[in-house]
Amino acid sequence: MASSLTKDSVKPGTPGSEKTFFGHPRGLATLFMTEMWERFSYYGMRSLLPLYLVAPGGLHMNAATATAIYSVYLSLVYLLALPGGWFADRVLGPRKTVAVAGVIIMLGHLTLALPPAGTFFAGLGLVAIGSGLLKANISTMVGQLYDGPDDARRDGGFTIFYIGINLGAFVAPLVIGTIGENVNWHLGFALAAVGMALGLGQYLLGGRHLSEQSNVVPTPMSAQEKSATLRKGLLWLAVAAVFYGIVGFSGHFTLNWALIPLTVIGLIVPILVIARILRDKDLDGEERSKVRAYVWFFAAAAVFWMIYDQGGSTLSLFADSSAKNTIFGWNFPVSWYQSVNPVLIMALAPVFAWLWLALNRRGKEPSSIVKFTSGLVLVGASFFVFLAPLAIADGGHKAAALWLVAIYFLQTVGELTLSPVGLSVTTKMAPKKYASQMMGVWFLAVTAGDSITALLSNPAVGGVNLDKRGFVALEAVLAVVAGFAVWMYRNKVKKLMGDIN
C-alpha cells in the first residue's frame, strides 16, 4: 500500500493533508486495512457457520434451524451497531470505541474455537457485540475524512473502503473455510481471532492519520446520566437472568426461547428508533424532512438484504446438498462460494468508483434513488436465476456451480449500486445530533431483513422452506416490485431530500 501514497497539495488542516491514498485522505488507508482484517475474521467465521451447524461433526442441526440461527446472528450483529453508535456519541468517541470493539471480537473468535457447544453460542454473542461497536463507528470515521457532504470524492472513498471489506472477505473463506471444513472446525474459528488481532494492531499504529474529529465525544454523558444508564442496564440484565433462569431450571428451555425474542426485537427496534428520531423536537424542519426521505432508502435496503444475505445460508446449504462443487473436475470446499462475491466486488468496485466520479463531472451521475432502484431489481433477478438450479435439483440432479456464480454476480452488481451509496447517503442525511447513531440506523435495515428471514425459516414460527421454488419466486417478485415503487415515488423522495442528491 505504501507505494500508492503520493504527495498532494490540498488545503492545510484537512485530515491526511500530507499524503493521499488513491487520491483520498491518508486516513482512508488505516480504516481500509482495519476493516479488511476485521472482515477477514468475520466472513471467515460466517462462511463456516451454517455448514458447522448442520454438519455431523458440528452441531448436526436441520437446515431450517441452521438458517434461523444464522439469520438471527446476522440481524444481531447489525442491530448492535445502533448502541455501538450511541456508545461512541455519548461515552468514548468513535476512535476509542473501535479499539475496544477489536478486543471483544478477538475474544469472541477465541471462544468459538473452544470445543464445548455452550461456549460456541457465547462466542457468537461476543463477536456480535464487538461487530456492533465497530461497524457504525468505522464508517462514520470514513465520512469524517472528507470536507463535508459536497466533497465529490466522498462516494468514491466509500467505494474504495468497500474494497477493503471485500479483500478480507475474499481471502477469508479460502483460508479459514478450507481449514475449518477440511482440518478442524474450531481451528478455523481460531484463525479468525488471528485476523482480528492483526487488524487491531494496524489500527492502533495508524491512528495518527485519522481525523481529530474521531476522538471527539459529540454529546458526552453527565455523571448522573452515566449512573442512571448503568442502573437501567443492570436492571434489565437481572430481569433477563431471572426469566431465563426460571425457564431453564423448569426444564422448558429450548433454542427458540432465545431465537424468537431476538427475531421480534430485530423487527420492532428499527421502527421504534426511526419513529423516535422523527419525533425529536431538537431537529429542524430540514433535518426532519431528510429523515422522512431516508425511510424510503431504509425500506428498500431491508428488502435487498433479506434476499442478499441468504447467499450465506440458503444458497450455501443448497450448494452443500444439491450442487456440483467442482471446477474442471476439481472439488472445492462449499465455503469457497463465499469468496465469489468479494472477488467480483474487487473487480467491479473500481469501475463503479470511476464511473460515478466521471458522470459527476459531466453532471450526469444517477441519483441515489436510481441507484437503489437498480439494486433492488438486480437482487430480484438473482433469485429468478436461482429458480433454474432449484428445478435441476428437484429433478434429482446436481446443479452446476456456475448457476450459483451467476446468482452471486447479479447480487454483487446490485450491491455496488446500493450498499456503498447507502453508507454515503446516511452520512449526508444524518442530523448532527445523530451523527454516529444514524449509521447504526442504516445497519438496522440489515437487521430487519435478516429478522424476516429468521422468522420465516424458524420451524416454530414460519416453517417456510426458503429453498423451494414458490417462495424463491415470491421473494424475487417482491424485490422487483419494491424497486419500481421507489422509482414511481422518486419525485416525492427527492423533494424530501432537499439539497442532497
UniProtKB/TrEMBL annotation:
<protein>
    <submittedName>
        <fullName>MFS transporter</fullName>
    </submittedName>
</protein>
<comment type="similarity">
    <text>Belongs to the major facilitator superfamily. Proton-dependent oligopeptide transporter (POT/PTR) (TC 2.A.17) family.</text>
</comment>
<feature type="transmembrane region" description="Helical">
    <location>
        <begin position="259"/>
        <end position="279"/>
    </location>
</feature>
<feature type="transmembrane region" description="Helical">
    <location>
        <begin position="120"/>
        <end position="138"/>
    </location>
</feature>
<feature type="transmembrane region" description="Helical">
    <location>
        <begin position="470"/>
        <end position="489"/>
    </location>
</feature>
<feature type="transmembrane region" description="Helical">
    <location>
        <begin position="159"/>
        <end position="179"/>
    </location>
</feature>
<keyword id="KW-0812">Transmembrane</keyword>
<dbReference type="GO" id="GO:0071916">
    <property type="term" value="F:dipeptide transmembrane transporter activity"/>
</dbReference>
<feature type="transmembrane region" description="Helical">
    <location>
        <begin position="336"/>
        <end position="357"/>
    </location>
</feature>
<feature type="transmembrane region" description="Helical">
    <location>
        <begin position="399"/>
        <end position="418"/>
    </location>
</feature>
<feature type="transmembrane region" description="Helical">
    <location>
        <begin position="67"/>
        <end position="88"/>
    </location>
</feature>
<dbReference type="GO" id="GO:0035443">
    <property type="term" value="P:tripeptide transmembrane transport"/>
</dbReference>
<dbReference type="InterPro" id="IPR005279">
    <property type="entry name" value="Dipep/tripep_permease"/>
</dbReference>
<keyword id="KW-1133">Transmembrane helix</keyword>
<feature type="transmembrane region" description="Helical">
    <location>
        <begin position="185"/>
        <end position="205"/>
    </location>
</feature>
<keyword id="KW-0472">Membrane</keyword>
<dbReference type="GO" id="GO:0015333">
    <property type="term" value="F:peptide:proton symporter activity"/>
</dbReference>
<keyword id="KW-1003">Cell membrane</keyword>
<dbReference type="GO" id="GO:0042937">
    <property type="term" value="F:tripeptide transmembrane transporter activity"/>
</dbReference>
<dbReference type="InterPro" id="IPR018456">
    <property type="entry name" value="PTR2_symporter_CS"/>
</dbReference>
<keyword id="KW-0813">Transport</keyword>
<feature type="transmembrane region" description="Helical">
    <location>
        <begin position="291"/>
        <end position="308"/>
    </location>
</feature>
<dbReference type="InterPro" id="IPR050171">
    <property type="entry name" value="MFS_Transporters"/>
</dbReference>
<dbReference type="InterPro" id="IPR036259">
    <property type="entry name" value="MFS_trans_sf"/>
</dbReference>
<dbReference type="GO" id="GO:0005886">
    <property type="term" value="C:plasma membrane"/>
</dbReference>
<dbReference type="InterPro" id="IPR000109">
    <property type="entry name" value="POT_fam"/>
</dbReference>
<dbReference type="Pfam" id="PF00854">
    <property type="entry name" value="PTR2"/>
</dbReference>
<feature type="transmembrane region" description="Helical">
    <location>
        <begin position="234"/>
        <end position="253"/>
    </location>
</feature>
<feature type="transmembrane region" description="Helical">
    <location>
        <begin position="439"/>
        <end position="458"/>
    </location>
</feature>
<feature type="transmembrane region" description="Helical">
    <location>
        <begin position="369"/>
        <end position="393"/>
    </location>
</feature>
<feature type="transmembrane region" description="Helical">
    <location>
        <begin position="97"/>
        <end position="114"/>
    </location>
</feature>
